[in-house]
Design brief:
By secondary structure, the protein is of the alpha+beta class. The protein contains 13 helices and 18 strands. It has an eight-stranded mixed beta sheet.
């Protein structure tokens, strides 16, 4: 969440940033927080004044008793008792106000960086790079941008290929659980495992420590990374224990550093994790949910970084290069988009999406979002670092990205690598784990 320091010291920037994210009633929301904080400060000042008076009176009681001024001593004692009662009420009031401020701040999104383009939806995102064609950064590169691969009407969609080659059984998944829970079998399951091994191995080469976290988290963890209360309706909730199935490994891995002070020399911290992910995807329908396009359970490798404010931009750049390198090694057509303010997540300050081309569906499929959250998550997590120079503590920056989500990568591999005889060529990078070079 935004800090009170940022809101009060950079008021105009905060309002402008919230307007760029198209947050309704931005000024009213920020003014309400400031007014509530003024109420907190006034309560604290009254409490401090009362405590000072009580301490002064407490010291005078002994002097009164020593001088035989019993009546004055009793008056002082009565006033101290009165102040204790008043202070108890004031302390409870202050705590209540602080909780109100936190609740208000949790309903306000992060503000975007200056490089985030203006816009309201996906059509306003900027294409900044593609391995298909050189492009100029800007809004006009989306929509009428002509760098899509040539359409081959003979290409079969991945759900037909999966059925023909007995790689994925969508109907069996419906029988066992429901729509959006496919069953991978044979070489389809091995392709999943090959991608997991490939992504984790590449992450290890890049210096990421592998984590195997729980896939069920408590409410505090969901709150810490901003999934709660923003995305509560999209998460599977285990009501009896008040646990949540994770939508991404970002949640448990980043929460490793909740309520932690890290020495500056330990930064940046680089973690990766392979987990199953669970998303209700309420409201999805039509072509968006065919085959592997949108699942309720899927596999994903996540990379997470904890860094200093001064170095987080460099960390973000390195993460983007890492994800791009994976797509290059898989030989897939891809493009990179810088998301506009209106299409960014609630918690991100800047985000880039990676999309791969679906050769049969003739559309781009998102496979990764790589985000810098600035101090927004860290403030909720109370994740801080101790500066080497003066030993003062500051909020960290948190970053994460998919590296990569498997379902649409599998779909893109199947569709782009399909052969005229109906078989699928295995990308060279995956052959060591697949044990075959063709799926047939």
């Amino acid at each position: 969440m935004l800090t009170l320091k940022l809101i009060t010291e950079q008021y105009d920037r905060v309002i402008a940033g919230l307007n760029k994210k198209h947050f309704a009633d931005a000024k009213q929301a920020i003014d309400a927080v400031i007014a509530k904080d003024q109420e907190r400060k006034a309560t604290q000042q009254e409490l401090d004044a009362n405590l000072a008076e009580a301490n002064k009176l407490a010291k005078s009681i002994g002097m009164f008793m020593k001088n035989g001024q019993k009546e004055e001593a009793e008056t002082a004692k009565a006033r101290v008792a009165e102040l204790k009662g008043i202070n108890k009420d004031l302390d409870e009031k202050k705590t209540s106000i602080e909780q109100e401020i936190t609740t208000m701040l949790c309903q306000i999104p992060n503000i975007p960086y200056d490089e985030v383009p203006e816009g309201t939806c996906a059509e306003d995102n900027w294409v900044v790079k593609s391995n298909l064609k050189e492009c100029v950064v800007g809004k006009d590169t989306v929509g009428n941008w002509d760098a899509n691969p040539e359409i081959d009407s003979a290409k079969l969609p991945h759900w037909e290929l999966a059925k023909n080659l007995n790689l994925i059984d969508f109907d069996l998944g419906v029988k066992i659980t429901g729509a959006g829970f496919p069953v991978y079998r044979g070489l389809g399951a091995r392709l999943q495992r090959a991608l997991i091994n490939f992504f984790l191995t590449e992450a290890a080469k890049a210096g990421y420590e592998e984590i195997m976290p729980p896939t069920v988290v408590n409410k505090e963890s969901g709150y810490g990374t901003g999934q709660l209360p923003d995305k509560e309706g999209q998460m599977y909730h285990c009501e009896l224990d008040d646990f949540y199935l994770i939508p991404t490994a970002e949640v448990p891995v980043t929460n490793i550093y909740r309520d932690v002070i890290i020495d500056e020399k330990e930064l940046p911290i680089k973690n990766c994790a392979y987990t199953q992910c669970f998303r209700r995807e309420a409201g999805s329908y039509g072509k968006d949910v065919r085959g592997l396009n949108r699942l309720h359970e899927f596999s994903k490798i996540e990379i997470v970084r904890i860094d200093t404010p001064e170095h987080s931009a460099e960390s973000h750049k390195e993460m983007l290069e890492h994800v791009e390198g994976l797509l290059q090694k898989l030989g897939l057509p891809y493009r990179i988009l810088r998301l506009c303010g209106g299409d960014q997540s609630f918690t991100s300050a800047v985000c880039y999406d990676f999309e791969v081309w679906s050769a049969a569906q003739h559309r781009w499929l998102e496979v990764s979002s790589v985000s810098n959250f600035d101090t927004y998550q860290a403030n909720r997590l109370k994740c801080r670092y101790r500066r080497a120079s003066d030993k003062k503590t500051e909020l960290c920056h948190t970053l994460n990205g998919s590296a990569l989500a498997l379902p649409r990568i599998v779909a893109s591999i199947m569709e782009n690598y399909q052969q005229p005889d109906g078989s699928i060529k295995v990308p060279e990078a995956l052959i060591p784990w697949m044990g075959v070079d063709v799926i047939k």
